[in-house]
User: Fold this.
Amino acid sequence: MACCSIRGALPIAAAQQPSTVAEEKPIQDNSFLIEEAYNQEPGVIQHISFFSYYTVSEDWVYTFTQEWPIPGDARHQFSYTIPVVRSEAFGAGAGDLALNYRYQLLGNADARLAFSPRFSLLLPSGDAKSERGFGGVAYQVNLPASIVLAPRLVTHLNAGGTVAPTAASDLGEQASVSGFNLGQSFIWLTHSRFNVMLETVWTGQGSVAGPERSSFSHSLFLSPGIRWAHNFSSGLQIVPGVAFAAGVGPSSGEKALLLYLSFEHPLGHSR
Assistant:
């Protein structure tokens, strides 16, 4: 699952033998801002670190995500995301914890078309007065679809929404707020271990403007990037990546450096 942390984005088997170079599959589940529709393989877990640094404000966001297939039926997947947020005004601290459930409704990583809706429960572990969280429980749905357009070209599409019925402002005022997100990425599989990426993310996010009042803002980012894989005979795969996101339209002038690192490995045995 991708770890969306662009400002305003609403952001989760049987043992096999190691593949030979000729049999290696392309990198598939390591996007930065867009969520792919591929659940983890049976018995394989993934640990994802994602860091966003905003070059103008010098604010940053770090997230750690861990994804687990449900034993016995990998169509079901559980994950959680722990964010740390830093702003010049309030310093660094924990954001809202996300607990995610995703169901592989259609296809898989080997299919031309895959679809896996996700539901997330966002717990108010972040301090709303420091603008690190909603200030109340929030609910999120995302609908990722992945389509193989050509042997070396894949696209991922996202549409989703978030509702926080009792969100709070930094002044302690409460209101119900909602948000929406749309996104698409194109992945050029230049090599089984090296990809070129272009991700586009639009978000509309509500915020508390006063007691029982909310306001709405929009953001739009284009993010070109690259990722590459290091595969080991134990089944461990390490995927680093880097991208540079540029704001356009309502986000014009905003820029962010994105750093990504994934560790994916089987539990107990080699693949």
